[in-house]
Amino acid sequence: GVPAGRRTARFRTVALVRRPDGTEVQATGTVEGHIAAGPSGDGGFGYDPVFVPIEGDGRTFAEMGDEKHAVSHRGRAFRDLARRLAAGST
Description:
Blueprint: E1 8-18, E2 24-35, E3 51-53, H1 61-64, H2 73-86
């Protein structure tokens, strides 16, 4: 197997809105973590049972339930996009 110190992962989401006038608003969200030795948890999909975010308490995304949205790359990207849209960013 891969040694624990080399089981790192990073996920990134880029979200973009193109307005009718052609201007674009873009936001990015990133989460760092590691790949667990084995799956744990029933929630989520895809890699959620094996991804453990660094900023968490040692649980996989699948074990976190809705809490994962606070630290996930998708949650971060879309919160930032909403903030930028509300502020009228381009």
